[in-house]
Write a structure and sequence with these properties.
Shape of chain B: elongated
CATH topology of chain B: de novo design (two linked rop proteins)
Oligomer: heterodimer
Number of domains of chain B: 1
Strand order of the largest sheet of chain B: 1-2
Helix content of chain A: 25-40%
Largest sheet of chain B: 2 strands, antiparallel
Radius of gyration of chain A: 34 Å
CATH architecture of chain B: Up-down Bundle
Largest interface: A-B, 52 and 53 residues
Structural class of chain B: mainly alpha
């Protein structure tokens, strides 16, 4: 009689019947071979996708590197005509600049022109004044000049609606007359998609020469503001003087308008002489001219001037950006400008 | 879960394998990177949003040479269609954070991975535009914004390089259904 040893059987793989999970470690068989082939296909597909992914990453990194590289490699230009002096007043606090360049649209719209006339002399048939394809705004003033001190608040507020200032300095006009808190454009840069701005501070608070005017700006000043004490047909018969503001050669002004600086004994000049509420207080008052401080310094006048400067820029740049140029305050100023007599 | 016959050579972390061979993605390094980046990005975007709306909170940032956070965050380019870019960044990172949660990262829904990829591509495209605006239109660099840009780039890299892992699984597990 023969005997058989009993041996335990190796478990066989259960046939695949459904789509439920298959446990790892199950033995290979015909369905697993197809799964293995499937895995090999997926692996090669993943490798292809992985390469494409890293290629996309490489492209993005190259683009970023190019943007940064070109920025640091290009020569920097200055809008301020060069600095002939080493003097550098303190930087204007960012809170002041922010308050002045973020005046609510509602404030500008509610003030409008305030019934005040066009502070500019409107021109016609003049050569266009542009820089880098953009309408150019030119300012000429001096740090000692009290009326320049007043005007700069409106210039910064208006231009802040079209671009960004960097490096604005804190300053005040000469103590000999009335030290009015203000900015200085010395060493300032301005960046905008819509308008180019060039500012020249010719003398410091003590009357010492700061910046010399380039020949093209000297010519503009002589044409639209006069030479020394000699007026031009664009200054309405009054003496030449600073601040000088030229918006694309279409709108020019010499000195402050009467509503912005009626006299040395009336606000805002009288209210700000000696410091007034300080830089931040002035900026906040211009943003809210109906408040206590706003009424005390006649902050409304700054908003009116800012609306007119804004309107002049809008008329020169084709009404961009529309969020600014289509606002009611600017439209009101544009209407007054359009009705003004033009001098050629 | 694992057959005893498999022995110790199979990793404990290996996921359940479906009949088509697709492996469900486990908690991966890339997912954690996206999660961490989106949380950090959310924090910075929230801070920038607060600075935008509150004059009592000032940006803590140097203002020297090429660096000026104030110049960048108060520029016309800081608004897009009337919406502050900081708010757009906040919304972006909230959505990225949701897509980075483990349950969503490992989702079997075939739309999730492509949506996450599209989000990453839109994010990096927008970063390229903002970088151009900073450098060539404003002329200044905002350090906080640069932090957000770097985090967005990190999200992009992690999502793009995880595409094969997440999309293949979703495609194939959808086929299993």
């Amino acid at each position: 009689m023969s005997s058989r040893k009993r041996r335990s059987r190796r478990p066989t793989r259960a046939p695949q019947t459904g789509s439920g999970p298959r446990r790892l470690g199950d033995q290979a068989g015909p369905a697993s071979r197809s799964a293995g082939a499937n895995r090999r296909y997926q692996r090669s597909h993943r490798q292809g996708s992985s390469r494409l992914g890293w290629l996309a990453v490489g492209v993005v990194v190259l683009v970023v590197a190019a943007l940064v590289g070109f920025y640091f490699a290009r020569p920097k230009s200055s809008d301020t005509g060069g600095i002939t002096s080493g003097r550098a007043p303190a930087a204007a606090p960012s809170s002041v600049v922010a308050a002045l360049t973020r005046i609510p649209l509602s404030t500008y719209n509610s003030v409008g022109t305030g019934g005040e006339g066009d502070p500019f002399v409107e021109t016609k048939d003049q050569p266009s004044l542009t820089a880098n394809g953009l309408p150019r705004v030119v300012y000429v003033g001096a740090e000692y000049c009290p009326y320049c001190a007043i005007m700069r608040w409106s210039v910064v507020a208006a231009l802040g609606r079209f671009g960004t200032f960097t490096g604005l300095k804190e300053s005040s006009s000469s103590a000999d007359f009335a030290p009015i808190p203000t900015f200085s454009f010395l060493g300032t840069t301005y960046a905008s998609r819509y308008v180019s701005f060039s500012a020249y501070e010719t003398e410091d608070r003590n009357g010492t020469t700061l910046q010399s005017l380039p020949s093209d700006v000297s010519k503009l000043y002589a044409t639209y503001d006069g030479t020394g004490e000699t007026p031009t047909k664009f200054t309405g018969g009054s003496y030449a003087g600073i601040p000088f503001l030229d918006v694309a050669n279409d709108h020019v002004s010499s000195g402050d308008p009467s509503f912005l600086a009626p006299s040395a004994t009336a606000p805002p000049v009288s209210a700000l002489a000696g410091g007034g509420p300080g830089m931040l207080g002035i900026a906040e008052a211009i943003a809210d001219p109906t408040g206590v401080v706003g009424r005390a310094i006649d902050a409304r006048a700054f908003d009116i001037e800012a609306n007119y400067i804004t309107a002049a820029i809008c008329l020169s740049d084709g009404g961009k950006p529309s969020s600014v140029c289509a606002s009611s305050g600017v439209k009101a100023a544009e209407k007054v400008i359009a009705a003004a007599k033009k001098i050629s | 879960m694992f057959s005893r016959l498999a022995g110790p050579r199979f990793k404990r972390a290996a996921a359940v394998e479906f009949s088509s061979g697709a492996r469900r993605p486990s908690v991966s390094a890339r997912m954690l990177v996206v999660l961490g980046s989106s949380i950090a990005g959310l924090g910075i975007a929230a801070y920038l949003t607060l600075v935008h709306y509150s004059s009592a909170v000032h940006l803590s940032c140097p203002n020297t040479g090429s660096i000026s956070c104030a110049a960048v965050t108060t520029s016309p380019q800081s608004m897009l269609f009337g919406i502050p870019v900081a708010v757009l960044g906040l919304a972006y990172f909230v959505v990225v954070l949701v897509f980075a949660l483990p349950a969503v990262w490992r989702s079997r829904n075939p739309l999730v991975a492509p949506a996450r990829l599209a989000l990453a591509v839109v994010g990096i495209g927008f970063v390229c535009y903002l970088l151009y605006a900073e450098l060539y239109e404003i002329g200044k660099i905002c350090l906080w914004c640069t932090g957000v840009h770097i985090l967005t780039l990190v999200v992009f890299v992690a999502v793009v390089t995880a595409w094969d892992e997440t999309s293949a699984f979703a495609r194939e597990s959808a086929a299993d259904d």
